Amino acid sequence: MLNKHKVNTDKLEIRITAMVGVALLTALTMASGRAVADNGQSEDEVVTPVGSLVAFAGAAVPNGWLLCDGRAVSRTTYSALFAAIGTAWGVGDGSTTFNLPDMRGRFLRGVDNGAGRDPDSTLRFATNGGNAGDRVGSGQPDQFRSHTHVYGMVVGGPAFGGSGRGLITQGFPTSLAGGSETRPINMNVNWIIRWRNEDRDEQLDALKARLEVLERMVGEVAGK
Questions:
Q1: What is the distance between the alpha carbons of residues 203 and 196, in angstroms, rounded to a whole number?
Q2: CA separation, residue 151 to residues 146, 148, 158, 159, 166 (Å)
Q3: With helix as H, strand as E and coil as C, how does 30-75 read?
Q4: How confident is the model at residue 169 (pLDDT cuts 50, 70, 90)?
Q5: How do the domains of the chain map onto residue ranges?
Q6: Structure-model confidence comparison of residues 139 and 209, the more confident one
Q7: Can you tell me the distance from the alpha carbon of 224 to that of 222, in angstroms, rounded to the nearest whole number?
Q8: How far is the C-alpha of 8 from the C-alpha of 6, rounded, in Å?
Q9: Structural contact between residues 53 and 191, judged by C-beta atoms closer than 8 angstroms
Q10: What is the pTM of this model?
Q11: Which of 26, 87, 153, 203 is least crowded, fewest Cβ atoms below 10 Å from its Cβ?
C-alpha cells in the first residue's frame, strides 16, 4: 500500500510539474513576442522589421541580414522577407525565387507618392522584372536637369574686313571637363536587408520545442 501510494504521489508531482512548466513556457512564448523594453516600447517596435535596409559599416554581413547585391534567393528559405518585399526588386525565376535589392554603387531616393519632387517618377524603370513607375524597387538613370549654354564668337562681317551686311556668329562646343560621372562627396557602405529577426525567432523556436516536450510528458502521465 505504501509503495502504491508513493507511485501515485510521484505521478501527481510529475503531472503538476509538467503542467506548471507548460503554463510557464506558454506565458513566456506569448510574452516574448510583445516584450517591453526599458524605454516603454514593445519588442515589435524595437526589433528592426524584416525588409529594412541598413547602411552597414562592416564587411561581414551579420546573422539575420543579407547583402543587397540583387541576387535571386529562395521564396521558401526567405519566406518572411518575401512576404515583406515580394517581387518589387525582381521576380527571380518567376516561381521559386525572388530578387534582393541591388544597391551596389547606388544612392537611395524616397518614393514620390504624389509629392511632386520626382517629376519623372512615372518613367522609372524596373530591375529584374520588378516594380516600375513610382513604386518601391524602381530605378532611374543618371541625368542632368535641362539647361542651356550660350557661347559664340564673331567670325566674319564688315568689322573684320569681310563682306556682308552684319556680324556673323558661330557656336563652338566647349572643351571636356570633369570626371566620369556627376556625384556628391560620398563614402562607401554595404547596404544590407533584414530577412529574419534572428534572436527572437531562435528563442521562440527553442521555447516551442520545450513546450512540445512538456505537452508530451503531460499526455504520457495522464494516460497512466
A1: 13
A2: 17, 10, 21, 20, 19
A3: HHHCCCECCCCCEHHHHCCCCCCEEEECCCCCCCCEEECECCEEEC
A4: low
A5: 1-47+198-224, 61-143+189-196
A6: 139
A7: 6
A8: 5
A9: yes
A10: 0.63
A11: 153
